Amino acid sequence: MGTIVEFKNVTKIFSSAYGTTKALDDVNLQINEGDIYGVIGMSGAGKSTLIRCINLLEKPTSGEVITDGDDLMTLSERQLREKRKHIGMIFQHFNLLMQKNVVDNVAFPLTAAGVPRKEARAKATELLEVVGLKEKVKSYPASLSGGQMQRVAIARALAQDPKILLCDEATSALDPETTASILNLLQKINREYNITIIIITHAMSVVRKVCSHVAILSDGKIVETGLVNEVFDNPKTEEGRLLISKAEESERREKEQKGV
Question: Smallest Cα–Cα separation from 168: which of 48, 35, 12?
């Protein structure tokens, strides 16, 4: 399996009236095709900026972002739009269209791309079966649980046959049981469709459960990368050790608050 996502010396600086913030600082990263890859860091580490650079929703200040063989920084707007079709994305708060029913939410990227409505709905119905929601085809998002809404969002992200699926804190709004079912679904999608999945999270338990590899992000820098068990059980850097102990402590507190 080759490399499907590569960052070469990626830096992202945000400027405002209050000065500049370096959200990503000379990041180098390689993610192989077919991996479930976790990027973990505390709040403000630069995780969401990093994931949004993979499809250039956020344009790096400098460096190269190579996705499936193309340096996105060199593509025209039209080429970039085409490329983005093959990079699905799911978010913490689902981002569903509340006025559309479930099947039309999933079909939306297809109809927006000019696919005839009947064909788009047929594919959407198939995908709802994949995510275990075929009985909710005509329901509206407001009547669904958080876990069901995230399943609809996953089906929608699969509509354009992505090679890569980006998950930005996709389970952090869900309870532990629902989180486990969504992670099982992501593993199934990875296995059956060979889609590379990149999971941005602050939760080590999420990474331990489903990811093969992990990168630790701290203050915009990648401080450690490797196999999940090796990095978590035996971090090689001081920043890695500190971040893992902080993450464990924050997860323990979260569990206590939720009464788990």
Answer: 48
Per-residue pLDDT of 11-46, as tens digits, reads 999 988 888 989 999 999 999 999 999 999 887 888
User: Global pTM?
Assistant: 0.91
Beta bridge partners of 7: 29, 65
Return the number of other C-beta atoms located less than 10 Å from residue 22's C-beta: 15
Instruction: At 98, give phi and psi (nearest 5°).
Output: -65, -25
The DSSP symbol for 13 reads E
Residue 203 scores a pLDDT above 70: yes
**Tokens found for residue 102:** 């479930």
Query: How many degrees, rounded to 5, is the angle at CA 143 between CA 161 and CA 258?
Result: 90
At 135-194, the pLDDT tens digits run 988 999 999 998 899 899 999 999 989 999 999 888 887 888 888 999 999 999 999 999
Q: How many CA atoms lie within 13 A of 12 on its CB side?
A: 26
Place of tokens 């080429």: 79
Q: Strand order in 164-168's β-sheet?
A: 87-91, 164-168, 196-201, 36-40, 213-218, 221-227
> CA 165, CA 191: separation in Å to the nearest integer?
13
**Residues with Cβ < 8 Å from 256, sequence gap 6 or more?**
none
Cβ-contact 29, 225 below 8 angstroms: yes
Distance CA 244, CA 249 (A): 9
In whole angstroms, give the CA distance from residue 199 to residue 125. Answer: 26
Cα(155)–Cα(152) distance, integer angstroms = 5
> Confidence class of residue 129 from pLDDT cuts 50, 70 and 90?
very high
Residue 14 CB neighbour total at 10 angstroms: 13
Phi, psi of 12 (to 5 degrees): -130, 120
Asked if residue 198 lies in contact with residue 174, where contact means CB atoms within 8 angstroms, the answer is: no
